[in-house]
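Study both lines:
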Amino acid sequence: MATLTLTNRKPQLFTCLACQIAFYSAELQRDHYATDWHRYNLKRKVAELPPITSEVFAQKLIDQQAQSQSDAEKASFRAECYVCSKTYYSENAYANHLQSNKHKLAEAKGINQVKKYTLNNNRSETASSKPAPRASENKSSDEIAEISADMEEMSVIDKKIANAVKLEEEDCLFCAEKSASFDENMEHMTKVHSLFIPEIEYLTDLRGLIKYLGEKITVGNICLYCNGRGKSWKSLEAVRKHMLDKGHCSIAYDRDEDIMEISDYYDFTSSYSDDHSKVYVDNSELVLPSGARIGHRSLRLYYKQNLRPREERDSVIINRLLTHYTDNFGYQHNSGGIMIVRDETTRMSRVERFADQKSRAEFTARIGIKGNRLQKHYRPQIL
């Protein structure tokens, strides 16, 4: 009697699709959702940008803090030229003034014997005056350009999110209908637009899923069914019209990336098997040390079969092919078996069948248009 023992399953991983990382516990996953790194990657995902790693995000924070500090120091810059009796609030303007002929001429004449410049840094109330650091001493030109690009990218994302239409729980995803409650809105989308939530028995956050789908439509202008694989749209009205015209009022759930995208709102742990150490016994056959297999007596009917070897001669194969064509496709061959001629009656019968199917389809479409019953099959769903 042969036995089979199953090994232990691999530990379950809790994933974050926005950051493309995995955790060994749900608590770590929930803590990760509250971090600035996760929120930053969510904004990048809405803007159709790839996620960044935690190291890159930390470096961006350091660069942004340094840039903010440098901007604050530049904003507090104040220099006075007592020779010319002028005050400057820009380091470049002050440097250009010192190199000007007018300043050099006034200094040479000794109109006022004062210091060339005084730098007042007002970063704090108790701080003493000291020269403001130059940008070249802190950051190279490449780093400054990178920081500027990142800040511009963040501003574009924030601007797009701020200008996007905000859908409430009572707003329909596919039309301008506004229901009295969230439950009525779900009933409206289910009955009118045939919205079907996949794997609803494992769904744990329906409101969060609907909110995420709404952000995809309003902010990203993405069709829920095409899911970014089709044409891009520029407005909420355009993507809604596309989904209604094409019948795409459904959630993409065919590919692995589609399933993983909304997996954060599901919990499939109840479907996992807990019998990791169960032993399964196979009573159908016995394997001897020599390698021979002894079958169970209940299957002796199959073991006693004596199948003839398949004929592989060319003449037999040719006759088999001729028989296949004449029996299934309406061909005929002469007595010598040389020429194969198509049976005209069979061809005509196939044409007639095609014409009959076409007329039936046209009749069904005509009746559907008159009765307004072209909506796809309605699948009732208990929420």
